[in-house]
Design brief:
4 strands, 155 residues, Beta-lactamase Inhibitory Protein, Chain:B, domain 1, elongated, 38% helix, alpha+beta, 4-stranded antiparallel beta sheet
Amino acid sequence: MTRRMGDEWSNDDRMRGRARRKPQSKQKQTNAVLLLFLIGGGVGLVVIVGIVILAIALGRGGTDVSGSTRDPKFDQVQRGMTEGEVIELLGDAAYIRVPGASGCWTYPRLTLEEFHQNPNRNRDIEDVITIYFRDGKVVDTFRQTGAEFRRPRPR
C-alpha cells in the first residue's frame, strides 16, 4: 500500500485499525497547566480564607456582635449576690448613683476621679454595667456597650 502526501495513516496503523495521534500543540499544553493551576489556586484560596474567617470568629473571645470587648466578669454577677461579693469580683464602682442602691462599673475599669481628670477617657470604655441593690443584695443589672454608654441621652 502506498502512502499519499498528508496521509495520517501508516500501513501498520491501518492494519491495526487505529489512527496515529498528532502531538499536542504547545498552546493546548499551556492551557491545561494554566487551568490546573487556577483550579488548585482557587481551592487553596478558599481554604485560606476559610481558615482566616474561622480564626477571627474563634479569636473574638470576649467580643459581642458590635465588635466591642465585653468584660467576662460582668457575666458572673448574679441576682442575690451581696454588695461585698460584687465589689470583691469587680472592684470599686466607677460611679455610685445612689449609695447602697446602685452603682456603675466600666471595662476597662475607670474611677470617677479618672473621668473628671480626663473626660476623653470615656472613649476607652467598651462595656458598662449598672447594678441595682436592695437590702445589700443585687436585684437587677443593666448592661451597655461603650458606644451605647457614650450616646447622648434625650432630655
